[in-house]
Amino acid sequence: MLKNKRTLFIIFLMLIFTLIFLFSFIFKQELINVSKVKNVNIISEEENLIVNISASNDISEFVNLLNKKPSNNSFSCPFGYVKFLIEEEDNTIIIYPATDGCHNFKIEDMYFSINSNEWESLISILGKYGVDRSLLESGTGI
Question: Are 99 and 141 in contact (CB under 8 A)?
Fold first, then answer.
């Protein structure tokens, strides 16, 4: 009888740990696998602009700033004038920043936001590569 209780207890613990692992994986899944990012480009076809973020520390910081869990909450911001191409080893992620300075981003049919400090960090990184903040704050877009 004691052996059956011990076995049931061990099975119960294994089940609990499995559920915890699965929930942590499902709910903490990152949009971007930072360790797999090989290249980041900022593109505005209308401005004939292609800028490559080349320094590895800038790539990491840039990607970490945008590595948010998107939601279905939509924004009425202008998207599409600028795109961020984030190339992983086997995947390309396209993120469209709003171009009215509202700190919102679109990925496929999902959206996310960053706070003001993160926005300023993003603008700072882009500035290192000659991208003026007006590109993302002019209100221009599709």
Answer: yes
